[in-house]
Amino acid sequence: MVYAVSWSLLGLTAVAVALEVVYRFLTRRRPVREVLFFPAPLVCTEPLLSPGTWCSCPLPHDLDGALPQLMRRLLGARRSLELCVFTFSSAPLARAVLLLHGRGVRVRVITDSDYMAASGSQIGALRKAGVEVRHSQSSGFMHHKFSVVDKSIVLTGSMNWTMQAIQTNRENLLITDDGICVRAYVEEFERLWEEYDPASYSFFPEEAERGP
Questions:
Q1: Among residues 35, 139, 148, 184, which one has the fewest Cβ atoms lying within 10 Å of its Cβ?
Q2: Active site includes 101?
Q3: Is residue 143 annotated as part of the catalytic site, yes or no?
Q4: What is the pLDDT of residues 70-95, one digit of tens each?
Q5: Predicted TM-score (pTM) of this structure
Q6: Does the active-site annotation cover 128?
């Protein structure tokens, strides 16, 4: 009788372990491995920016293209978005960033000091809305073009966040959740964030070099 009970317990344990293995297999998250290429056709992104609303604009409402895929990844952020981009003038992407900020997602932006005030730049609108922005203060360009979603997905490539890059240029964007890559980009962002802290700015570098 004791043996029968023991074998029953062993059988139940084996079934439980097998079910756990099957559950983990079925619910495991697929690795993110995507590549987007531009230029991409101009499409209406209103369904992504304002879900549930009807848009009657004449633009195509095809949401399978490169720009909608990029916006979906960005709008999927739940906790944080780190954006490090040379120049930023795309109004649809700016709206996506502002939506995240309005949802309580912590958004931080690093950009180039020379191009942040260029015609059409969205940096001023982001700052006005309360988004944290820091910029370079050196002779070389802050030429990075990457973003990190929830510190778990990296989007990086040749593309600036401009309509010219989206609609005209030959550009690429790699999207990955590879842990090694994500950590490297997070570390680079944090390093630049500290380097570009306004508290450490030298507003008169030439005078500082000459001394008193």
A1: 139
A2: no
A3: yes
A4: 999 999 999 999 999 999 999 999 99
A5: 0.82
A6: no
